[in-house]
Structures are given as structure tokens and as C-alpha cells.
Amino acid sequence: MGAPILVLYAHPRPELSRVNQAMAEAVRDLPEVVVRDLYGLYPDYVIDVDAEQQAVRQADILVWHHPLQWYSGPPILKEWIDVVLARGWAYGHGGTALRGKLVLSAVSTGGKPEAYQREGFHGHTVPDFLRPYERTATLCGMKYLEPFVFYGSYAATETQVHEHAEAYRAHLQSLAKQRAAEHG
Amino acid sequence: MDGHNVLLSAFFFLAAAVAVVPFARRGGLGSVLGYLLAGVFIGPYALGLVTNAEDILHFSEFGVVMMLFLVGLELEPAKLWRLRVPILGMGGAQVVGTALVLALIAILLGQTWQTGIAIGMALSLSSTAIALQILNERHVLGTTAGQSAFSVLLFQDIAVIPILAILPLLATGLLDGSAVAAASDDGPAWLRALTVIGVVAGIVLAGRYALRPVFRFIAGSGIREIFTATALLLVVGTALLMQLIGLSPALGTFLAGVVLANSEYRLALESDIEPFKALLLGLFFISVGMSINFGVIGDHPVLIGGLVVGMIAVKLGVLLVLARAFGLPGEQNLLFSFVLAQGGEFAFVLFQFAAAEGALTSEVTEMLVVVVALSMATTPLLMILLDRVLRRMRSPANQREPDKIELEGHPVIVIGYGRFGQIVGRFLSANGVGMVILDNDPDHVEVLRQFGVRAFYGDATRLDLLERAGGETAKLFVVAIDDKEKTVATVQAIRERFPQAKVFARARNRDHVYDLWSAGAHFTHRETFDAALTMGREALVALGEHPFAARRRARMFSEHDEKMLADGYAVRDSDESLVKLSRQAREQLERLVAVDKGVTPAEKDHGWGD
Q1: Is the pTM of this model over 0.90?
Q2: Is the pLDDT score of B233 beyond 70?
Q3: Residue of A nearest to B548 (CA)
């Protein structure tokens, strides 16, 4: 078995990114983590399903790591879900490959946390907006964890970004440890 | 005939054909009737411009031989094998049945039984030239009726051999020593049979193993007319050989055609022989028209008319019964029967032979020649009549299902199967698109064939070849030949000749793109553009650019370049404008890339800064 954590990193403009790119860099060297840059691997949107399923099979924890844009993830993540989580493999008759695994959404928003309240500007919380991802995970028999969110990337300082990236690293490490303990 | 006379005769023939045939065709009479009429006009009973109809008839009969060669080329051995039942069954029944009925009638009309049988056999044959020409002209050779008619004609060609053997036996001095001796003076029967088998086997083996290397060598020399000469040599040689052993030359060349049907030279051979065939056949029809003896008709108008109608009625009746018996569907049996109801050109030969052998009197022979010639002229008329009747029957409730067209028609023709054409072709064929592949390098075609690619040799700048390849029904041409000028000329020619098809052409560079656009190409692409851009894109990635960014930039570059190419078309003749345009375009692209990189703020921010 390979590294327990598979980070599926989806950012269409990583060279312009501040928060997400820093996060990805912060976890890349962890022995427990494999980062797959989906836009880097599949710039033409044609996903190698076998390779992706192989990577998923070897991991115990999946991380959907992306900025929130128009209340959702970037298109390649949707494509990844569409083609990799195939019937008979991820769900449906004989679709047990994902059962028991954990899923974490690691996302960032441009707006501040107060905008993501029921009574705030957007009218819903981030977990509300991530409901489709949660259902997707649940349908495949996976446990959907509390999302790991960074709010207000527009106004974030260098220090805040750095601290969040370190926190991301620590979070993944602790998830891996916890999981190892559970499995004994 | 001295040289002057030959030219003068040729002039009259051509003039008559040019003057009459197009009108006949336009007027819905078909080309065959047009040629026959032209023959009547210049013949001895109208203007009397040309008199030696008989010589010309013999010479132009070679058109039928060529026609059979071409038919053979279209018929692969496997297809021929599938036709064995109609050939032997329908063909055999037609010849025997028709001959017996006609013989009976002749005897009832007061002929001796020997003469009756001779007449029956000679008249049982149909005209390959007329029937095939009409079927071809109507594009129905591939239908059930067309295939059945062809099968019967093929059997008749074979039947000529035994008929020639029987005729001397029917001579009035029946079975006296001299007739038997004449029939067997070619040596013992087993030796003849052995010779025939040997020659046929020789043709098959030569076609299989010797001819292809020869054609390859000739084609490799690149001298087009020598290829044509080789093709003609093959047909003439085969015909001579068959004559030598007493078989029908048409049958021999047909066989040679079948053997070559699978070869890569099929299309080239077809388009080389086709014009000769067409001219000779036209000449043949003209000479049939000329040989209609209006003097005899004038002497016995009622008798001749009755004989023509009677013969056609009998032949038609037998054919209709056969069509029913062999289960031809619906209107197919009418087409089949009408197209074969005339007397054949071989009857002329048989009559002469029979007269010489004493099986027929010269008076009967003369009359029968007129009857056969007239019956040939009636076929185009009968076909027009059939069309009328069918149209009335069909409308409106009596609609039938369309004829099953068995001839292959591929939607795509790929011209040039080198590095470029091959990729297009392989991609299309991986997607189940049928295509005809042409290449003008015989060695290359040979290699392709070894890899199982059904490529044909041929210079695709020749329109006749493209026609043979199915240009008239093709949806799309891919022109992927090396030579720039040839590409442009080919595109232009295809657009003019086959306006229904789209033309996709490989371009070398920008100027070539412009030339191809001017020539009417629907789509053209610079051959190295995508490969070079892909390499550029990968180079960017190797230098550390993110793959998705590299993809976007490549896309940007390509769109921009295509746009500049299109803009430049209007000013293509001015170097100055082109240079200016290209400088503007470069600056514009630099600006776009700067925005994409985030160096310059975008006017419309997509907001991917998280």
C-alpha cells in the first residue's frame, strides 16, 4: 500500500494562486501524502481513469483540494468525479472500491467567513455549498469529514496564508496518524 | 482503304456521333439509340457517306471485348463465384429454352429442322454491348436484375463455343465426311480441351503472379502512356490468344479482368481502357446502324416487322418465365427481361459462319441480319416504354422499395497515402469510415498492400481515375499529395467535377493555403503546424510552465495564427501589408500572453487568485 492520503489538487491557474498553491507545496513532501495536480496531469481534460482509480485504491483518505469558484469546484474535479467514480467500481452493483475511505474537502473562498452564513451575503455556509460533494462521498460508502476551509483569500496577508498552509500540513498528518491508530 | 479514306471515314463517324448522340441522350433516348441513328444517317441507305460497314463492324467489335475486360475488373473472383447459380442456371435455361422455341417456330414457318436449330441458337444470344451499355448508363448493373442479366450474357459468351461446334453438323450435307472433318481438323478433342485448360490456367496464373510485377515496373517508370500501352497490350494479347485456341476473346479478357480485380492497378487499368472501350463501342453501334439493310426492309416490310416483333416477343416471354422461376423481385424481372430481349452482335458472326457452312441460305441470312439489327435498335425504345409503364404502375399507391445497390460506394477518397494521408486515413478507418485510397508510387502501394491496406495505384490528378474511384458519390476528398502545384490543380479539378463533395487539402505553408483556398478547398491545414506547436507546448512545460497554462498558450497561439492567416488572405499579394499584419499580430499575441500570465491585469478578471 502506498501513501495513505491522496490529494487531488484542482486549480486551473496555479501560477496565479496564493493560498492553494502554498497549501499544495506545504504537503507535497509528506511521506503520507501523494499530490496529484489534476490540471497538470490532464491539461486537455482527458482523464486517465485507470491511473486515477489505481491511485484512489492505494489511498485511505481522499482530499478534494480546490478553490471555491461560483460556489463549486473547478470543472476538472467534476470531470474527475464523473469518469473515475464509475458505476460498478465506486457505486452500484459490485462498486465497493471506495467503501470505508475518508474524504476531506480542502477549499478556499474569496469572501470572508461572515459572508458564508445563513444570514450573510451568500445566504449559505460553505458546507451547504459542498453538499453535492458530501452526497457523492456518502453514496460511494465513504465518510465525508468536516471541510477544511480558508476564508477571505482576497484580503489575506502573507502570514495568514503561511499559517493556513502549515495548519493544512498538520491536519493531514494528524488524520493519517488517527487513521493508523484506528486500524491498529 | 488508303490513308485519306481512313481519315475521311473517321471524320464522318466522329461528326455523326457528335451531332446525334448528345441530342439522343438529352431527349431521353439514351446513347445507344443515338449511335444507331448516327449510323443510319451516314450509312448506305441515307447519306451514303461511309460504305464499308462490315469491316468497321468487325474492327469495332473489339469494344465488346474491352467492355468485358472492364466488367471483369469490377468483379472479384469471390463475387463471380457467388454468381455461379444465375450464370449456369439462368444462362443455361435462357439459351436452351429460347433456342428451342425459336427453332420450333422457324420449322413451323417452313424451314428444315437443321436450319431451324441454327436460327434458334443464333437468335437466342443477346447483345452484350447494348445490354451492358444500357445497364451501365442507368447505374443498375449492381441491382439484382443487373447482376442476373450480366450472368446470362456471360453464359451466352461461353455458349458460343459449343454453338460454333454444332453449326457445321447442321449443314445440309448432314454428317457427310467433309463436315465432320471440318469440325475436327484442329486435332483430337482431348488435345483441344487440354490447350483450352492450359491457356485459361495460364491467364489466371499470369494475372496472379506475373502481371502485377510487370505493371509495377511500368508504373514505376512514370511514363503514363506506356502504362496505357501495357494495358492495351494485355487486352489485345489475351484476345488474340483466345482466338488462336478458338475461344471467345471477350471471355478471355473477362477472365483476365477478374484475375486483376483484386490488384492495386484496377482503377488505373479501368480508366486507361475505358475511353478506348467507349469509342470502339460507339463505333460498333454506329456500324450496326449502318448495316441495317433498308433495301431488304423495303422488299418485305411486313415479314421483317413480324419477325422482329415475334423474335422479341419469344425472347421476352422466355426471359419473363425465367425471372419468375428464379425469384427476381417485382419490377426487377421486367428490367431483366426487357434489357436482354434483342438479338446479339454475335448472331452476325454466327449467320456468316452458318451460311459458309451451308446451314443457312444467303437469303435467310440477309433477312435475319436485318432482324437482329432492328431488334437491337428497339431495345432502347423498349426501355423507354418500360419506364413509362412502370411509372404509371407505381403511382401513387404502388410504391416499391428501392433497388438494392450492391456496388461499393465509399464516402471518402484519400489521394496520396504517404506520411500525412496515412494518419488521416488510419484515423478515419478507426472510426469505421470506408474509403478508397490512391497513391501514385507503385512501390509504396505494394508495401501498403503487404500491410493489408487496400490501396490503389493511380495518378489522382486524372479525373477519370477519380471517377472510377467513386468520385461522383463521394462525400469528401482528402488531398494529401506532396507536390504543391499538383495539390492545387487536383483540388480545383475535384471542385469542378464533383461539386457535391467536400475537399480537404494538406497545405505546405501559408502561400499554399491561400492557393488552396482560391482553388476552392473547404478545409486546409498547414501540415507541420500542429506538430510544431505541440513540440512548442511541451517545451514550455519542460521549462517549468504549468501544463494547463502551456495548453492555453498553445491554443491562443494557434487561434491567433489562424486568424492572421485568414486576415492575410485579402492582402496576400502585398508583401508590405503581410509584414505589417504579422507585426501587429505578434504584438497582439504578446499582450494576450502577458494578461494570461498575470503580468498585465486582465480587463475581465476570472478570479482564480485563491
Answers
A1: no
A2: yes
A3: A43
